[in-house]
Amino acid sequence: MRALSLFLVLSSVAEAVSIGQRRKIVQSFNVRRTKSSDSTPLQVGNGNFAFGADVTGLQTFKPYAIMSTWGWHNFSLPTTPGQTSVDDYTGLQMWTHGRLVPYEVPNPAQNDISNWLRENPHRLNLARVGFDFGRKDVTEDDLRHKSQELDMWTGRLSSSFVYDGSPVRVETWADPNSDTVAVNVNSKLLRRSLGLFFDFPYPDKEKFNAPFVGHFNLTSKHSTALDQQSPNTATIKHTLDDTTYYTHISWSGHGNINGPTNGTHRYTFTSAQTNNVRLTITFSSAPNPEPTPYPRVTAASRAWWNSFWARGAFIDLTSVHDPRAHDLQKRIILSQYLTTINSASSYPPQESGLVNNGWHGKFHLEMTLWHTLPFARWNHADLVRRSQPATYEQILPAALSRAQAQGYAKGARWGKMTDPQTGRSAPGDINALLIWQQPHPLYFAEVEWRAATAKRGRRGSSGSAAEETLARWDAVVTATADFMASYAWWNASTGVFDLGPPMYPVSENTDPNATRNAAFELAYWRFGLDVAVRWKERMGRPVPGEWVTVRDGLAPLPMADGTYAVYEGIEGMWTSNETTNDHPAMAGIYGLLPPPASGPPLDMDALKKTARKIKELWALDFSYGWDFAMLAMNSLRLGDPEQAVEYLLHPIFQFDDAGYPVGGSRVPTPYFPNSASLLVATAMMAGGWDGDEGKTGHWPKSWEKHVRVEGFLPAL
Ligand SMILES: *[C@@H]1O[C@H](CO)[C@@H](O)[C@H](O)[C@H]1NC(C)=O
Ligand SMILES: *[C@@H]1O[C@H](CO)[C@@H](O)[C@H](O)[C@H]1NC(C)=O
Ligand SMILES: *[C@@H]1O[C@H](CO)[C@@H](O)[C@H](O)[C@H]1NC(C)=O
Ligand SMILES: *[C@@H]1O[C@H](CO)[C@@H](O)[C@H](O)[C@H]1NC(C)=O
Ligand SMILES: *[C@@H]1O[C@H](CO)[C@@H](O)[C@H](O)[C@H]1NC(C)=O
Ligand SMILES: *[C@@H]1O[C@H](CO)[C@@H](O)[C@H](O)[C@H]1NC(C)=O
């Protein structure tokens, strides 16, 4: 509370970053391309829907995706006897503290249904929309003077090129309020040969579909049908097994849609009597959605993006002389645009957002923390509310029955890799034994409580926002903490509560049967139970005794060689490259998490030595990118903002020309937890944290006087 009131005082004297200045900064990073990228599109979108374009502003030469949060598909179930139904799947039992517990892992005796459950449902690429030049052999090289600009201030993608001596100008927009892309084309060629094509793919079983999703040559596996309803509208119905959805196309002036071309699902739009055509293309699972006229899409897009940039928190590094500040500013701006389009959805996003598919388009609940936290930290509560706590409420029944089937006394065990349709945990050894996703709802709840009470202070209002927050999260908070208390296991010989075995720690690379008391998970259990206890106290309700008993009896954080260790009893902590690999989660106990509010304090010398050892010995070239942001946050709390900036600009932590986070050696591009984590770390640089004595910023010395920030609350 002390830190909060300090913040409120400081924020009233902090210099605002004017709308004009924000606009100048945002637009200075507008993306410009003169050819299509082989790995990333330029996108317009709204968080639940996005359209990926090549250099033509459509998908003419590169079939980048059009994806949504609702477009999913199942392949038919296996026909193998005994594996023809989801209910046939049993998973496997594993010894867990002297009893056999069923886990959702692949069962070798049930390979077909295990695989089916992992691969289904999978996310669909809805369609491809491109220019039809009236002949088949046109390539990108046949276009001259190609140029495009993505204006992040309005959400407009402008593209132009010359074909056959004639200029073509294209604008591409997405509607913030529906799954609609709007396209404006200006060209004399429209009177001659230029048209637009629409094509429809069928999905495949690959875990990663990147950079493109689906196949356009599996035409016999699915069907399409054209219904031209009026001279200005047409609907194409696409049926893939049990999935059906509709593409509604409206246009200005005269036009016609024909197709499909023999043996394909390709339709062609032509408009012979004009130099200008405006189309809106709406995707929906319902046959007749209300069409959104072109001017409404463009006006809504401008208004939405203007307000996004004007109302959000802001960091202005333009007066800092260090060239690194420019790179960091660029990453900050582009990451905000891209995470909003790709991750601000009604369900947690997949790691590749709406660009392409990873893990079949499913989402990982442990990554939800990275994906969603930036919106909370950058003052976009409306975007957090899209999925929180609704997603947890929706999958609560599945999580409660998982915990019950596993014989735990109480609570909800959150799965890992899942989808919005079934809430199942996809069969997988790691999926079933990872536990650090469990306390996430408590982190979200606490951050939201923070925002609600800070506002109350400023407005001096009744506190109803705080009460509403307490009530809204209470069921999820309770079920989450109940499971955490049930899961911790009383080890009578050591007299402490153990976590695991079996378990996978954050780094997912240890022997689960030997992994006990991983450092980050223990710290996170304490943090989570502290939040849950406070939650009940704030509500004036009794605190379940077992929450306190478990919290106060948790095993101590494991140490090795004067540092924090991955888990208790790990061998060769700093001498084997097996143990200095993957996510360095020990940096999270003082980076992502605040110091403990209960129990023994952290050992500052050990934290510093751990940070030094990670810097010297960790195999960072094999890290997933959000490790760099976690290490940066750890550096900040350890008082080393210089090192934090170095981590955030580390040569392995890469973003491409359009700001897409490069996947690196282990996952395809883009890998959005990188962008999100960069925003969480920079919010901490700008807003500080509780107990940092009200410092307004944590920047390298030479930056301090020149940075301007607005709208941040302190981190936990
Ligand atoms: C896929 O099948 C599951 C049942 O296993 C069902 O809940 C889900 O709605 C189906 N999704 C689609 C797109 O057919
Ligand atoms: C862990 O132990 C279970 C038996 O409970 C066994 O089936 C499994 O293969 C072991 N896992 C590893 C990675 O050794
Ligand atoms: C079908 O298209 C895919 C790309 O989507 C390609 O890899 C494959 O070779 C094509 N198959 C045939 C028979 O053309
Ligand atoms: C249409 O496609 C079928 C099979 O793909 C082919 O046999 C037939 O010749 C095609 N007809 C035309 C007019 O192209
Ligand atoms: C109790 O903890 C000790 C130390 O971590 C461990 O070696 C032992 O296996 C645990 N006991 C049981 C029954 O798991
Ligand atoms: C560990 O180091 C050895 C020797 O440098 C190397 O061959 C091996 O690939 C490394 N293992 C990992 C997991 O990085």
Q: Classify the secondary structure makeup into a structural class.
A: alpha+beta
- Widest sheet: strand ordering: 1-10-11-12-13-20-17-16-15
- Unreliable spans: 1-14, 456-461
**Strand composition percent:** 15-25%
Separation, N- and C-terminal Cα atoms: 11 Å
| Main sheet specs | 9 strands, antiparallel
Kindly state the percentage of residues in helix: 25-40%
The number of strands is 28
Instruction: Based on Cα principal axes, name the global outline.
Output: globular
Distinct small molecules: 2-acetamido-2-deoxy-beta-D-glucopyranose
- CATH level 1 name of the domain at 34-73 and 123-308: Mainly Beta
CATH fold assignment of the domain at 34-73 and 123-308? Beta-galactosidase, Chain A, domain 5
- Given the structure, what is the number of helices? 17
Radius of gyration: 26 Å
Tell me, rounded to a whole number, the average pLDDT: 94
Q: In CATH, what is the homologous superfamily of the domain at 34-73 and 123-308?
A: putative glycoside hydrolase family protein from bacillus halodurans
Short note summarizing the structure:
The protein contains 17 helices and 28 strands.
Task: Characterise this structure.
The chain is an alpha+beta fold and 716 residues long. Among the domains are: 34-73 and 123-308, Beta-galactosidase, Chain A, domain 5 (Distorted Sandwich), CATH 2.70.98; 86-119, no CATH class. The protein is built from 17 helices and 28 strands. Strands 1-10-11-12-13-20-17-16-15 form a nine-stranded antiparallel beta sheet, with helices on one face. A four-stranded antiparallel beta sheet has the order 9-14-19-18, with no helix packed on it. Helix 8 (390-405) packs parallel to helix 11 and helix 10 (440-459) runs antiparallel to helix 11. The protein starts with a helix and ends in a 6-residue tail after the last strand. Residues 1-14 and 456-461 have low confidence and may be disordered. The chain binds 2-acetamido-2-deoxy-beta-D-glucopyranose (6 copies). InterPro entries: 6-hairpin_glycosidase_sf, 6hp_glycosidase-like_sf. GO terms for molecular function: hydrolase activity, acting on glycosyl bonds. This is Six-hairpin glycosidase-like protein. Keywords: Glycosidase, Hydrolase, Signal. Residues 1-16 form the signal peptide.
